Amino acid sequence: MNICKLYDEFYLEKSDERKAAFDQKLISTKFKIKGVKTSDIEIFVKFLFKEKVDLNLLPMTCYEDVLIKGFLIAKQKDSQLKKKELEKLLPFIDNWGSCDMICSRLKKMDGEEKFFQELLYSSNPFYKRFGIVWLKNFVLKNDVQKALTKILKISDENYYVKMAQAWAVADGFVFDFEKTFDILKTCKDDFVVRKSISKANDSFRITKANKNILKYYLKVWKEKKC
Fold first, then answer.
1. CB 16 within 8 A of CB 36
2. Which of 88, 119, 147, 212 could make an S-S bridge to 139, C-beta 3.0–4.6 Å?
3. Beta partners for residue 62, in sequence order
4. pLDDT tens per residue, range 37-96
């Protein structure tokens, strides 16, 4: 199988200049964006997986290449192999899009939780975000205390790290409002507190009564800051 030819044919058929221009406004990356729909990428990945392509032979020259390899890694059965391949892939993840879409597919990796926790202490903001998003997706629901304590322990001024923290807290309110609220009260980061509550107030999964509690807390928080 000629992998390069296969990719060229795929992009020739599925690339969309309008989508690429739109995506470039949302995603800041050093890689060129070809504007391929996620659904088309998933179909292509299924084919590659069925053909048992060698992960080491896959090109890594554009944004979609990173997604394809990430999605294909997620399909592997062996969690240790996934971890090994993710370590190679992480340097290519330089934006929230590839980070979040790949991370959301990394199921059945509970045995590699330490790997994701260690990413939280990286100097690379997107390694940190990767660890946060994985914990949010696969640990938070079953153990709010564990996930949020680790996530909010991070101190980083990067916007994408802070937004991931706020996103995790907002989801925490859905799974265990009281425990998440107690944890949020220990957070000293003004941006994370405000964004967490803002995201929670936008959620349809949080009751009006709980939203009112958060609004009052935010009011008190703002008065303390003045």
1. yes
2. 147
3. 32
4. 999 999 999 999 999 999 999 999 999 999 999 999 999 999 999 999 999 999 999 999
Of 177, 175, 224, 225, the closest CA to residue 197 belongs to: 177
Contact of 183 with 148, CB cutoff 8 Å: yes
CB contact at 8 A, 180 and 169: yes
Distance CA 38, CA 49 (A): 16
DSSP letter assigned to residue 62? B
**Whole-prediction pTM:** 0.95
Query: Minimal CA–CA distance to 59: which of 14, 5, 101, 107?
Result: 5
CB of 205 within 8 A of CB of 174? Answer: yes
The tokens describing 122, both together, are: 């990286």
| First-to-last C-alpha distance (Å) of the chain | 65
